Amino acid sequence: MPKIYLSPSTQENNLYVTGGSEEYYMNLVADALEPYLRASGIRFTRNRPEMTAGQVIRESNAGNYNLHLALHSNAAPIYGTLRGVDVYHFPGSINGTRAAEILADNFRVIYPNPALVDTRATTALGEVDRVRAPAVLIEIAYHDNPDDANWIINNIGLIARTIALSLTEYFDLPFVEPLQPFSAQVDTESGRGLNLRDRPSVRSAVLGSIPDGARVTVYGLLPEWAAVEYRGLGGFVRREYLDFD
Fold this sequence. Notes:
SH3-like_bac-type, MurNAc-LAA_cat, alpha/beta, Aminopeptidase, 6 helices, hydrolase, cell wall biogenesis/degradation, SH3 type barrels, N-acetylmuramoyl-L-alanine amidase, six-stranded mixed beta sheet
């Protein structure tokens, strides 16, 4: 399963023109994104609001991540004069550039003015050029512009869904709408364990075996597979071997 480092802004002093802060609203986006990640089989580590940028970078670099995803909102050099979504990536990173392009394409579908959504190569942002993993930093519109600030505030769920859709495209995973998590019991009928797999395919790697009769938490459903978690390990199982009570 792919694993990302999820890094909503820790900039509590970057204030929205409409009230609230960049840290507050980007953490709301991350909160809304988490169920999509679990449902689609994307593992994640998330930063914490009290962390500094340097601590975030060090924690990301200490792990083994397939993508570093930073969530921010922007401010113009001349207050309130700009609008749009910018997705930053490192110029020498093939995967980072590809992720940025996918995100920008999908944001063009939801942002009011698609022409103002762009990708930008940079070597001046620590969460792009100082992390080991391929990285993207999304500036989700301008919080010093009333129209953009209100767009963010009124579209938290849609923004999160768009990011999730982009990540599943990037990782070549099926997009799964999240469910309210619920418990199910493994029932293999043979008494043997149930394979927990990396992806919803019998050809994918086996992450472990879940004992017959054990209970799992279900986060999302596909026609033949379920995204589940068992003892802290997430993956996919054949849904025919789950008893939904």
